[in-house]
């Protein structure tokens, strides 16, 4: 709860109806290094990145270590179902038979983003690492590099030419449509992919922090402010509802990021589609 009420640490409920931090960035920044190795500082965010990576590696290794067994464990069956979902329902269904090649990457980003998102609703953590723009930005950049390289590898220079001069539209519209497609594919795709994930997790984390923190501050100050403490009850209850909703959002945003990554690869392999 200490991390959760960071937003209202200096709040005086006897004087302030709405408790808010002086700087909203306090909700997302953890600049103090836990420890350092040479010039590299390991902040709480860096530690959580490595923790998410470790959780993903352990879950996949432990769940798939007996893959093919006649009687798999429930955990193994669940992990295998997750792997098959990404491989069959995303990679192959979206990209086609060639999607098998990209299934490991899609599985990696799906599980990593999912774990990073769920840190938001994890007790004693309460901080989604994907609410730091550098992380979704880097993942979006990797996706961008993959689909651009694949586009040129599969189609050569015609990949760029087909984008600039789309033959499927009337000649008069080709310059305008080509310019829009060029900006959309090579500039906007990685930006929107990253911002979509980042914005959703920031919004959810901010709502949870403010609602639960402010509600708790008021409720716990009943001895100082009397009946006005009742104001905190609906805030806290609403925050718990948002808490459950954010679990759904965490899964959904991991799925959307992975799905769009597969779609972008598919359009690079088959730009005519």
Give an overview in words:
With 273 residues, the chain is mainly alpha-helical. The protein has one domain (4-269). Helices cover 65% and strands 3% of the residues. It is built from 8 helices and 2 strands, in the order ββαααααααα. Strands 1-2 form a two-stranded antiparallel sheet. A hairpin with a 2-residue loop joins strand 1 (33-37) and strand 2. Helix 1 crosses helix 3, helix 2 (74-95) crosses helix 3 (103-118) and helix 6 runs antiparallel to helix 8.
Share of helix, binned = 55-70%
Question: How much of the sequence is in beta strands?
Answer: under 5%
Question: Low-confidence spans: pLDDT under 50, at least 5 residues?
Answer: 1-9
The major beta sheet can be summarized as: 2 strands, antiparallel
Distance between the termini: 50 Å
Mean model confidence by pLDDT: 82
**How are helices and strands ordered from N to C?**
EEHHHHHHHH
| Tally of DSSP helical segments | 8
Compute the number of strand runs.
2
Q: Shape, please?
A: globular
Q: Compute the gyration radius: what is it?
A: 23 Å
- Secondary structure class reads mainly alpha
Could you give the order of strands across the largest sheet? 1-2
Number of domains: 1
């Amino acid at each position: 709860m200490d991390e959760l009420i960071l937003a209202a640490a200096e709040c005086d409920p006897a004087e302030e109806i709405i408790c808010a931090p002086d700087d909203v960035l306090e909700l997302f920044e953890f600049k103090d290094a836990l420890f350092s190795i040479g010039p590299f500082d390991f902040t709480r965010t860096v530690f959580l990145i490595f923790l998410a990576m470790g959780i993903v590696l352990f879950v996949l290794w432990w769940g798939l270590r007996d893959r093919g067994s006649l009687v798999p464990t429930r955990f193994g069956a669940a992990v295998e179902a997750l792997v098959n979902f990404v491989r069959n329902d995303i990679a192959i269904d979206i990209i086609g038979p060639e999607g098998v090649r990209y299934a490991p990457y899609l599985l990696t980003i799906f599980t990593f983003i999912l774990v990073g998102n769920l840190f938001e609703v994890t007790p004693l953590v309460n901080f989604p690492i994907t609410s730091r723009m550098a992380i979704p930005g880097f993942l979006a950049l990797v996706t961008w590099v993959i689909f651009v390289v694949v586009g040129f590898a599969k189609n050569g220079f015609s990949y760029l030419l087909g984008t600039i001069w789309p033959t499927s539209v009337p000649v008069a519209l080709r310059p305008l449509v080509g310019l829009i497609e060029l900006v959309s594919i090579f500039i906007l795709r990685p930006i929107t992919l990253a911002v979509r994930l980042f914005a959703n997790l920031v919004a959810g984390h901010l709502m949870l922090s403010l609602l639960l923190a402010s509600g708790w501050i008021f409720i716990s100050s009943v001895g100082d402010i009397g009946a006005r403490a009742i104001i905190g009850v609906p805030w806290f209850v609403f925050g718990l509802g948002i808490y459950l909703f954010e679990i759904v959002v965490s899964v959904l945003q991991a799925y959307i990021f992975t799905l769009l990554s597969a779609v972008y690869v598919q359009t690079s392999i088959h730009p005519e589609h």
